[in-house]
Hints:
By secondary structure, the chain is mainly alpha-helical. It has five helices and no strands.
Amino acid sequence: MTATSSSPSDSAGPVAGNAQLPPEFADLPIVASCTDCGACCSRQGAPPDYVALERNLHFRNDPSFADDAERLDQLPDVARELLQLYLDESAAGTRPTDSACVWLDSESLQCRFYEWRPSTCRVFELNSPGCLIYRRLCGIN
Ligand code: SF4
Ligand code: SF4
């Protein structure tokens, strides 16, 4: 998602500010970068839009998926194999859908194929409500 965008540095979206945030998240600080976080990627299972496209072939007819469909068709082999592994294991019931994204590097907490991340990850904003919700879920301030 998760900036479902754990980024190489601080290249998640612009700071959103927290004026619209639910009060239960008001104590979470505004952060300057995604460094050492990865919370929003830690429960995605796999790049979300590509999973949607693979599971729903008719989405390819939806113009809103055009960019993701084009990227999906050109993925590097390793990225494609990891996506397929997730699809196979989740279909078999052996991988929880809320496990860490298969593209997330567990040591660096960065996306291993950042330049190939799907639309959902591209628009996810640092310090957005979603960012704070994932940080709270993962116990990361
Ligand atoms: S594709 Fe990359 S940015 Fe998106 S959820 Fe997976 S690890 Fe995170
Ligand atoms: S939860 Fe927020 S701070 Fe953490 S990696 Fe995602 S966008 Fe960055």
